Amino acid sequence: MATRFDPFQEMDRVLAQVFAADRASATMPMDLYRDGDHYVLHVDLPGADPGTIDVNVEDRTLTVRAQRSARTEHDVQWLAKERPSGTYARQLTVGRGLALDRISATYADGVLTLTIPVAEEAKPRRIEVQHGTRPTSIEAGHPADATV
Description:
Blueprint: H1 7-26, E1 30-35, E2 38-44, E3 54-58, E4 61-68, E5 86-93, E6 104-108, E7 111-117
Antiparallel strand pairs: 1-2, 2-7, 3-4, 4-5, 6-7
């Protein structure tokens, strides 16, 4: 098989691979939405070792950290090595009104899912409105005979 070697194209490919790996390892794609009285956060962590996943909350900062180890096969010639390895980390500042002590986390199929409940005191509630400053009573009979 005949191949044509272009040193500039090869250099471009190598540089793109290096910079893409740096960008990819620094980001964790995520989805965040509210479902009733809780928020759901899905974070993509493909290939992360479940034992390295760390989720913690300090004050109002939620931190997600995970590690994906590089494959270390010996005596192989890599033809493409585009999957990033290293530590993934992401921090989110969360608002008040969340029950941060009741966060639950699951990891399945390369996706970390956090469920963050809304605190009871932050949930919407109906306030009864009373009319007037004192109770009003109306007796049966003629409207002119009503007492207040």
